[in-house]
Amino acid sequence: MELSTLKGIGPTRLESLRAMGIVSLRDLLCYLPVRYEDRTKITPCSLAFGGEVMVMGIVPDKPKLSRFNGLTKVTASIMDESGKLPLVWYNQPWVCQQLPVGQSIMLFGHVVEKNGRRVLQNPQRVTEPSIQPVYRAVKGIPAKIFREMMQTALTQVDDCCPETLPRSLRLRHQLCERNFAIRQAHFPDQLDNLRIARRRLAFEQMLMYQAAIGLARNHQENGIALPIASDAPDAFWQQMPFPPTGAQKRVLEEIAGDMRRERAMSRLVQGDVGCGKTALAFGSIAMACSAGYQAVMMAPTEILARQHYESAKALLEPMGITCGLLIGSMKAKEKRTAHAAAADGTWQAVFGTHALISEGVSYQKLGLVVTDEQHRFGVRQRSTLQEKGAQDNRAPHVLVMSATPIPRTLALILYGDLDVSVVDELPPGRTPVKTRIVPESKRSDMYGFLREEVAKGRQAYVVCPLVEDSEAIENVRSVKATFEALTSGELAGLRVGLTWGAQPAEEKASVLHQFAQGELDVLVSTTVIEVGVNVPNASVMVIENAERYGLSQLHQLRGRVGRGTAESWCFLLADANERLRILSQTNDGFVVAQKDLELRGPGDLMGTRQSGEMMADFLLDGDVRMLEEASRCMKQLREDPALADERAAVEAEAEHYYRDKLQQVALN
Q1: 177 near 586, Cβ under 8 Å?
Q2: Is residue 75 situated within a structural domain?
Q3: 413 contacts 208 by C-beta, under 8 angstroms
Q4: For the segment 320-366, what is each residue's pLDDT rounded down to a tens digit?
Q5: How many structural domains compose the chain?
Q6: Coil, strand, or helix at residue 339?
Q7: How far apart are CA 636 and CA 639, in angstroms?
Q8: CA distance 228 to 293
C-alpha cells in the first residue's frame, strides 16, 4: 500500500508528510507519538490540580462568551459530587453551542492556577476512556485526521515493518516483537503494554545507533600527523598566568597525543561552566600553530567569537602566533582582508562564526578545527569547515567543546563517534553561586537585594521564558512586559537593557556590548544570554518561571554569574519542587545533569536534534539503565565470537537504515 492510497491523503497532505520526511508507509509507522494523554482515569473536581486530568460531571449553567482584542473566551464550569471546577476555552467560540447543559460529560484538559483559582483550560470532550497518542504536528493535517491515517496504516505493519533483531538477542534482553511494539506504541491497550513497546523500540534504535557509529569509525578519515613536541603541553601551561588543574593537564596531553597521530582527531571536551575549556582550546591551537599549521575556532555567536579573539590575541600573539577575526557583520572591505589573510596563511589562528565556512573562504594549511558549544552547530556546518582544510585526502583534526554537562556514560553513548574528555575539576578560587528558590511573596525583597548589589557597582540579569505576553499561556512572564514593569516599578532609576533572540542583530549586539562594558545595570533577556556572554561584574541572576526550564539549562543560566571574585546569587522565581531543590543544593553541573537525566529522561535533556541528524529518529525514553544495557549489548556483540551472527545481522540492519547518514556522522 502506498501513502497516497490511505484514506484522507490527497496531493497537498502528501506534500506536508514529505516535508516531515515521511515518504513511505514505513516512515509513517515509524513516526511515533511524542507523548500520550492518559484518558482512562477520572479525577474528582476537588482533586484536579496542576497538570493533565480527566473529569466527569455535569455543566450546570450555560457557557458565557466574551470578546477582547479580537480574541474570544468561553467560560463555564463542570460539577461532580466533590465540587465544581471552572472551565475556559480561548478562541473556540463554537464550544458555546457544543457544550450540553445538565448532561453528564467527560472532559480532558490542563489545570492551571490563575489568581489563586484552579481552571481547566481548553478541555476536550471525551466519549470513551483511552490512552490517546499525541504526535508532533504535521502542517495541514489535523490531529484527528492524522490519528485516523495512522490506524489505517497499522493494518499493514506486518508487511512494512519486519523484525530487525535476532530472536536469540530479543530473548536474552526480554524484548517484545517489533510489530507488537509498533502497534502498542501508537495505540496502547494499557500502560504496561506501552512501556513494553517503548522499551523495545528505544533499545533497538540505540543498538542500531551504536552499530552505525562502529561502522562509521571503521571508515574514519586519515589525518595530518602534526609534529608536536613531547613537552609542548607543559610549555603552553608555563605561558599561562595561572597553573592548570590536573584535569586540564590530562586533557591537553590527550589532545596532543591525538594530533600526533595520522588518524584525524575527533574529540569532545566536555566540562562544567568555568572549568577552563577555553584555555584547552587555546593550548590546542598553540600546539597546532607551533607545528606549522593553521587553526580555526568557530563560536555560535559573534559576541563569543569576538571574546575568544580578544583573549587569544592577548595570550597567543606574545607566543608569535598571529590571530584574526572573521564574522558576518564585518564590512565588505574587512571581509576581503580577512579572506586574504586566512588564504595566504598570514593569520595562523582564525576566530569567527559561521562566516568561517562561507563561500569564498579558504585556508592555506588548516590542521585543527575547534567548534565551541557543539550542540549549537549542525553536523553539516562542522563538516563544511572540516572539508575546507582537507589536504591530499587528509582531514584536519577536530576538537569539539561543550559546556552542556552530560553524565559521562550518556556522553559515551550519544557521542559514540567522538572520543570524550571530561574536565571534571574547577580552578581554585572560584566562588560557588548561591542559589535560592524565591516564592512570589518574596519578589519585592529580592528586587530590594538586587538594587543593593547594583549600588555596590555590580550588575544583574533577569531572564524570562517568553518574548511577549500570551493569553494562551497564563502566569508566564515575558521579557517585554517584565522590562516595562521593572523600569517603571521595582528597578525605576536603574539603567535597564532589553534583549531577546529575534531582536535585530545590531540592536542586540549593542545592548549586550553596553552590558559587558558596564553601561547597563540590569539586562532583561530570554535565554539568548545562556551561551557566549561573559560579564565578570554580574553577580545576580533572576530567572522568572524557573519551573519551565530543565535543570541543565537553569545551571547554564546560573553560570552567567559567579565569573568574578564577588559573591554571586541565582534566584529561581517559582514554587519549590524536587528539581529546583537539587539546583539549590549543588553547583556541580555533572550532578545536576545526572539528576536531570533521571527526572526528565535523555530525550528531553538533549533536546531535539542536538546530537546530529542520526539522533533525529531517536526514541530516547527515560530509563538510563536501558540505554546502558543497549550499549553493553553492542560491546558484547563485538567482543564475543559466539555472537558473530547476531552482530552481522544487527550491523546489516544498521547499515541499511543509516546508509545515507554514515558519512555525515564520522568525525562529527
Answers
A1: no
A2: yes
A3: no
A4: 999 999 998 889 999 999 999 999 999 999 999 888 878 788 899 99
A5: 4
A6: helix
A7: 5
A8: 11
Alpha carbons 122 and 93: distance in angstroms, whole number: 11
* The 3-state secondary structure of 465-477, one letter per residue: CECCCCCCCCCCC
- 71-85, 93-107, 281-295, 401-415, range with the lowest pLDDT: 401-415
**Are the beta carbons of 293 and 366 closer than 8 angstroms?**
yes
Q: What is the pLDDT of residue 183?
A: 96
Q: Are 516 and 543 in contact (CB under 8 A)?
A: no
pLDDT of 617:
41
72 and 32: one domain? no
Q: Would strands 71-80 and 64-68 be described as parallel, antiparallel, or unpaired?
A: antiparallel
User: How far apart are the C-alpha atoms of 110 and 500, rounded to whole Å?
Assistant: 28
**pLDDT tens profile 460-510:** 999 998 876 554 455 677 889 899 999 999 999 999 999 987 888 788 888
Rounded to 5 degrees, φ, ψ at 404 are: -75, 110
Check residue 17 and give its pLDDT: 92
Q: Which cell goes with 285?
A: 591551537
Closest CA to 266 of 232, 305, 231, 219: 219
Spatial CA neighbour of 541 closest among 553, 519, 524: 524
Q: For residues 358 and 456, state if they share a domain.
A: no
DSSP string for 592-609 = HHHHHHHHH-HHHHH-TT
Measured CA to CA, the distance from residue 556 to residue 233 in angstroms comes to: 29
Q: Are 323 and 316 in contact (CB under 8 A)?
A: yes
Residue 50 CB neighbours (<10 A): 12
101 falls within a domain: yes
CA distances from 276 to 244, 304, 516, 591, 594 (A): 9, 15, 20, 18, 21
The rounded distance, in Å, linking the Cα atoms of 659 and 655 is 5
Confidence at 658, pLDDT banded by 50, 70, 90? confident
Q: How far apart are CA 667 and CA 433, in angstroms?
A: 36
Answer for the pair 376, 531: CB distance below 8 angstroms, yes or no.
yes
Domain identity same for 71 and 19: no
- Torsion, CA 328, CA 606, CA 659, CA 417, rounded to 10: 80
The bridge status of strand 294-298 relative to strand 349-352 is: parallel
Cβ–Cβ under 8 Å, residues 613 and 381 = no
Grid coordinates representing 453? 548589589
Q: Which helix (H) or strand (E) holds 44?
A: none
Domain enclosing residue 306, as ranges: 232-261+275-402
Amino acid identity for residue 79 in this structure: M
Classify residue 196: in a domain, yes or no. Answer: no
CATH number where 467 lies: 3.40.50.300
Residue 550, helix vs strand vs coil = coil
Closest CA to 330 of 358, 311, 308: 358
